[in-house]
Design goal:
The chain has 154 residues and is an all-beta fold. Strands 1, 2, 3, 6, 7, 8, 9 and 10 form an eight-stranded antiparallel sheet that branches. The C terminus is likely disordered.
Length: 154
């Protein structure tokens, strides 16, 4: 049975504009703040008399990648708060070799700021997929890849 890696460990999040260019790498992520969550698509049913379902359809799921960063200077958040739609791809690169990372393409990004006495100024990032699918109905805007020993990250 293959060894399973159960966590990302220290990960790097790489944000790349869909127009290309050099990725922005975030290595200063607050411990335990990175998560990938699903927003399940709505299920619809066509009912016939008696309440029996004649047909079912489910809208595609959407994925949310969340992380938080401690902010050391105002240039890290100035002009970057709020939502930007459809212009980023984002990748989670785990530190540990053979850990599985995630890539989300053509996502929206929302950045909010908060302050608390433990972490100081914190920027919370949420990247959200659109639920894009191919002709077969398979999601095309999220993929999972095992990190090879030669890849960087962390």
């Amino acid at each position: 049975m293959p060894t399973k890696v159960i966590g990302w460990g220290k990960c790097v999040v790489k944000e790349t504009a869909t127009s290309g260019g050099t990725p922005t790498e975030f290595e200063d992520i607050i411990d335990g703040s990175t998560s990938l969550e699903v927003e399940e698509g709505e299920e619809m049913e066509a009912l016939i008399e008696g309440g029996e379902a004649e047909a079912r359809r489910k809208k595609p799921d959407k994925y949310l990648l969340k992380m938080s960063r401690r902010i050391g200077n105002t240039s890290d958040v100035s002009g970057k708060l709020g939502m930007t739609d459809n212009i980023y791809s984002v990748e989670v690169v785990p530190e540990q070799a053979s850990a599985i990372g995630a890539t989300l393409t053509t996502v929206s990004r929302n950045v909010t700021a908060r302050f608390d006495s433990t972490d100081g100024l914190v920027a919370d990032y949420v990247y959200k997929t659109k639920g894009q699918t191919n002709a077969s109905g398979a999601l095309t805007d999220i993929s999972f890849t095992a990190k090879s020993a030669s890849q960087g990250g962390g």
